[in-house]
Amino acid sequence: MAKTITFAMLHMTVAFSVAYLLSGSLLVGGAIALVEPAINTVVYFFHEKVWDHIRNQRADGHPSGLMPACSGALGPV
Q1: Nearest C-alpha neighbor of 37 from the set 65, 10, 61
Q2: What is the pLDDT of residues 22-51, one digit of tens each?
């Protein structure tokens, strides 16, 4: 979780700087710096969860990292 929090702080700093330089407005820069990185941080958290799942699947012997969707449910194809 610490990695996610530090990433969020860094991202907000960059987002504010870019938005402020483009708009010249502290209000616009601040709003963008809060909203966009907050959403991106949540997405990043779940992205890490998906990759952890894939890593665990590979460790369990599934070379693609994903379980077959219909493992035998449709019979021989």
Answers
A1: 10
A2: 999 999 999 998 898 788 888 989 999 999
